[in-house]
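Colleagues,

For the teaching module next term, I've prepared a clean inverse folding example: a structure given as tokens, and then the sequence designed for it. I'd like students to try predicting residues themselves before seeing the answer, so please don't circulate the second half yet.
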């Protein structure tokens, strides 16, 4: 089965072990720096490919140095880039990630990712696809109105589907997302996003409030692991202990691990455990690309992990 990821594509400039948060008129020092592949969509795509999935990416970059860099990273990970357009009228996006010992903040220029539209995607041929994944629903202003149509088209074709909403910079958390979920098999928000979308603070209650009879909702809880509901039963998994360098992209690598296990029709506990492992392992390096899990990494930690509850 081929996985199609449609979405934004940009580079990350990661400043690690920052001594504090920058403020107007002040300068803060960082002890680490990396230029690496960014964007939630691309990180999920490369993490899936490194786990052995066949992945095609559809999107847009600028005809510039950052665009060439992003394409190179995707290809190096084994992602098919034949459906990515190099647009000379747009600049490739970039995110500055500022990471301290306790948290991180992101400053993003959406660039070409914001001008990707439904018309760009509608004309493409998707041969051999069995699953559609979309990330950064709120950031992709050009694609967002077309996402429900794209998911509905995938459903009619017999594909499975997944969605990671990402953060909404406008913090309006539009009602259109709730309607879109009718066409989604797996929904993968983090705790902040889930609370904002549902209006319910407790993760389990928030999941229950969004149930629609189709969508499996998995909430990422950072260092506390993850949670889903099997009927009324809470199913959780905790991440393995690793030496954390940077949490940028951990949620995207979690998505890849969860989906990789879900494609194999493993039970919910095993899927959550695979997601937690892949998310944790990605934090061993700066950015979400350099330390993504291999099949051997996942198998080793999965074999010795305690059973999920």
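(Answer key — instructors only)
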């Amino acid at each position: 089965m081929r996985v199609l990821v449609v979405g934004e594509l940009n580079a990350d400039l990661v400043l690690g072990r920052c001594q504090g948060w920058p403020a107007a008129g002040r300068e803060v020092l960082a002890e680490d720096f990396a230029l690496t592949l960014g964007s939630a969509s691309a990180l999920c795509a490369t993490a899936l490919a490194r786990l052995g999935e066949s992945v095609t990416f559809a999107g847009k970059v600028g005809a510039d140095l950052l665009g060439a860099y992003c394409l190179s990273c995707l290809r190096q990970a084994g992602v098919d880039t034949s459906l990515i357009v190099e647009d000379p009228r747009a600049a490739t996006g970039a995110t500055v990630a500022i990471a301290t010992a306790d948290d991180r903040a992101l400053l993003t220029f959406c660039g070409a990712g914001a001008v990707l539209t439904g018309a760009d995607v509608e004309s493409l041929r998707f041969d051999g696809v069995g699953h559609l994944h979309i990330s950064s629903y709120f950031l992709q202003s050009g694609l967002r109105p077309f996402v429900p149509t794209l998911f509905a088209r995938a459903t009619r074709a017999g594909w499975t589907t997944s969605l990671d909403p990402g953060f909404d910079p406008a913090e309006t958390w539009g009602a259109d997302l709730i309607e879109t979920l009718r066409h989604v098999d797996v929904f993968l928000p983090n705790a902040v996003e889930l609370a904002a979308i549902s209006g319910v603070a407790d993760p389990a209650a928030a999941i229950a409030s969004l149930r629609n009879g189709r969508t499996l909702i998995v909430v990422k809880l950072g260092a506390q692991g993850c949670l889903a509901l099997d009927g009324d039963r809470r199913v959780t998994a905790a991440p393995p202990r690793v030496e954390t360098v940077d949490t940028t992209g951990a949620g995207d690598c979690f998505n890849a691990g969860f989906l990789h296990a879900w494609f194999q029709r493993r039970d919910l506990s095993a899927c959550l455990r695979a997601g937690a492992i892949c998310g944790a392992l990605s934090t061993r390096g700066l950015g979400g690309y350099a330390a993504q899990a291999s099949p051997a990494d996942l198998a080793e930690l999965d074999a010795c992990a305690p059973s999920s509850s």
